[in-house]
Amino acid sequence: MRFTVAFLVLAASACNAExxxxxxxxxxxxxxxxxxxxxxxxxxxxxxxxxxxxxxEGSNDLHCLADNPGDxxxxxxxYHKDLEPFMARGRELSAQGxxxxxxxxxxxxxxxxxxxxxxxxxxMLYVLTGKDYNAxxxxxxxxxxxxxxxxxxxxxxxxxxxxxxxxxxWLMYPGTAxxxxxxxxxxx
Length: 188
Prior knowledge:
The chain is of the alpha+beta class. It has helices at residues 2-16, 22-29, 35-38, 84-95, 100-112, 156-159; strands at residues 42-46, 52-56, 62-65, 74-80, 123-130, 132-134, 139-141, 144-150, 170-172, 180-183. Helix 4 packs across helix 5 (100-112). The longest helix has 15 residues, at 2-16.
């Protein structure tokens, strides 16, 4: 029952939110990517129903995801195309009301048991957050970019990377399908 209620609440908030035009979603989402990869990135965004849809087919290996119009924050991400099954499963679980550790555990189990594909080699994710996006100026207000390198099942022993969070690279969720190196520069 809680999942049905949570799904209906998420769907209603996305539907009630004003969905920006596709051009606006594309322009804002690619800000997360390195400049030389922006023009060729595929872009996933939101249609008028609040569902995720392909807004632009790309010519390189990067997928960008537009800001969710159903929440109050600004957050866009770009990631290697091989991470899409893992990311799509995360979005699906969120829509069903799963959050935090419970969502992670389900997704990792799905990878472990072969229901969700996850590359075994490192893959990149760029996450850009900010106060908002100014479409007239094509700029993210108060931008903060962090980098994530997915390295499934990596451990401190296999990588030599600490698990202590900070302003230097560190390994999050070691030993799991969702293991990744976080690189978060100090905020200005």
